[in-house]
Amino acid sequence: MDIGGRITELRREKGLTQQELADRLYVSRQLVSKWESGDRRPDYKTVEKIAQTLEAKPEDIVREEDVIIEELAACVPGEGKGGNDCIDLPALLNGFLKTLPEAACDIFIRRYRAHETPEEIGARYGVGDNYVRSILARARKKLKKYLKEKQNG
Asked: What is the CATH architecture assignment of 64-151?
C-alpha cells in the first residue's frame, strides 16, 4: 500500500477526521488530503510525526529504505521513462563520489549505502540533522547534474 493509503488507514483506525489529524499536526486539512490522495508526499521527518500522532511506527507508513531509494531515483535523468536501460549506475555513482569533498562524500555514503538517518549522521559528526539534510540536498543536485552530463556525453 502507498503512503497515502497507509495514512488514511491509520487515521481511520484511530477514528480521526482529516481535520482532526491536521489540527494535531499543526497543518492544514488540505495538506492531509493531498498526502492521502498521493498528490503530495510527506518527508520522513513528517512521517515520524504522523506516526507518533497516530500511535504507530514510521515503518507502518513507509520504510526508510523506500525514502532513500526515492531520493536517489529523483536524481536519475529520465527516471520512469525507460531511458536508463543502458547506464551503469554503480560506476557512475563511484565516479560522482570522487567529485565530492571528503566530508560530503562520507555523509552521502552513510545515508545511501549504510542507510543511516540524517539524525544519526549528525550525531556522528556533532552537527544538526538540518545541516546533514542540506549537504545531502546539495549532493543530490550535483548528482543529478553529473548524471545528466554523462548521459548527454
From this structure: Orthogonal Bundle (1.10)
**3-60 maps to CATH 1.10.260.40:** yes
What whole-number distance in Å separates Cα of residue 59 and Cα of residue 105? 27
Burial 43-73 (b: 16+ CB within 10 A, else e): ebebbbebbebbebebebbbeeeebbeebbe
Rounded Cα distance between 39 and 10, Å, is: 18
Q: Is the pTM of this model over 0.70?
A: no
Task: Look at 13 and 117; give whichever has higher pLDDT.
Answer: 13
Place of cell 544519526: 120
Q: Is the pLDDT of residue 84 over 50?
A: no
Burial-class residue 132 by CB neighbours within 10 Å (0-12, 13-18, 19+).
buried
- Boundaries of every domain in the chain: 3-60, 64-151
Burial string for 87-120 (b: 16+ CB within 10 Å, else e) reads eeeeebbeebbeebeeebebbbebbbeeebbbee
